[in-house]
What we know:
The chain is mostly helical. 51% of the residues lie in helices and 7% in strands. It has 18 helices and 6 strands. Strands 1-2-3 form a 3-stranded antiparallel beta sheet. Strand 4 (56-59) and strand 5 (64-67) form a beta hairpin. Helix 2 runs antiparallel to helix 9, helix 6 (129-142) runs antiparallel to helix 7 (153-179) and helix 11 (247-258) packs across helix 18 (379-400). The longest helix is centred in the middle third of the chain and has 27 residues, at 153-179. The radius of gyration is 23 Å and the shape is globular. The chain binds acetyl coenzyme *A. Acetyl coenzyme *A (ACO) binds next to loops.
Amino acid sequence: MSTARLEYNGQSWELPVVEGTEKELGIDISELRAKTGMITLDEGYGNTGSCQSAITYIDGDKGVLRYRGYPIEQLAEQSSFVETAWLVIYGKLPNEAERARFSALLTKHAMIHESMRNHFQGFPNNAPPMAILSAMINALGCFSPEVLGNEDESNFEESAARLLSQVRSIAAATYKMHIGQPMMYPRPDFKYAENFMHMMFSVPNGRITPDPDVARALNQFLILHADHEQNCSTSTVRMVASSGANMFASCAAGVSALWGPLHGGANMAVIQMLEEIRKGDLSPAAYMEKVKDKNSGLKLMGFGHRVYRNFDPRSRILQKAADIILAKLKIDDPLLDIARHLEEVALKDSYFIDRKLYPNVDFYSGIILRAIGIPLDMFTVMFAIGRMPGWIANYKEIHDAPRLKINRPRQIYTGATKRDYVPREERG
Ligand code: ACO
């Protein structure tokens, strides 16, 4: 085993170097504090491996993304979201029996418990859908006896299917509540994406027939969001799971982490930015100047990524998918032209080139979601539906580990040193 040497104050220590299957190297500092009394400091965790994981591989410099070894391009082209979900969760492509069993479980659990349907009435009509989703996923745990304290291998698949199936039913019900339409029951004859579209867009006296091309675009969107190793929300899921919390509680926390505009919320922010430019408040050129000015507080939304310092492979696939679906639906979306224009300008601009900023997954995904009729405030919810397999798989890795070890980082304290309590009457 190779080692790295750390020297400090005339002393030196050998630290083991761990190598991953793709030759990534990590210095194992698990005994650093015990040996040296020091910890590492890495705010934002850009240089910290929080775990060893066998789920997703990313090479950010080369623009590579693989789930369980399979390139994202192949999965987006040939797989379905449900098959990819099973792959991400279980580590292999399902055989026919496994696929059929999982599919039957998804159908069995698609319907929201009637008591849970009443929970929706308790939210104000304009409640943010991500708040409802997080709350409802936690509530779902209460209707899932197998997870509350006695989850094991025999019922894990049942829980995973319940969560994966109902996240889409909850999302659609949230939308229906918001627009004042009756919630639609799922249809057992529809596949995952088609059923979601039915629950979103059918009404009791007008059932839609989902367009296969739209269903395919939706499948691609979901596949491309299925996992992305130790991002903010997935790390949150692992953090919560490491305390022994159940799958539903852990994934509900993932939804909260995803909500932020620097993470999943960026897909909404991209469309808002493009709309602002379209309305003529700012020309694309003026907008680009503003994002380069640090005082403006603006960013080119949908650009840049903590890990990809080259193109994000998901954005390339989604750009093509956006072209296809807009042509199919005969939609001429001016926002797509603005997005293309901004990308063209950014890719030639030294500000973006020097900082290695390229379009990320969110830059084109919103155009697709708009085209298929998903309202803007549901965009991040769509991301959450897509990310559910990754959260479940990461939860499973923690849950299946031989020893549950709580995640508990340390800190460098920078506050006041010891001082004595001052009685209220003596304070200045
Ligand atoms: N527009 C303008 N400048 C940017 C952008 C951007 N979108 N992204 C990064 N920069 C600049 C930073 O200001 C910084 O400049 P400096 O070196 O002169 O100070 C430099 O590029 C490095 O950026 P960091 O913020 O250090 O990069 P970090 O890895 O911390 O952040 C992040 C990555 C959060 C994604 C960032 O690029 C960003 O805010 N992008 C816009 C929001 C977005 O699209 N988020 C979605 C990410 S993908 C996902 O979560 C699914």
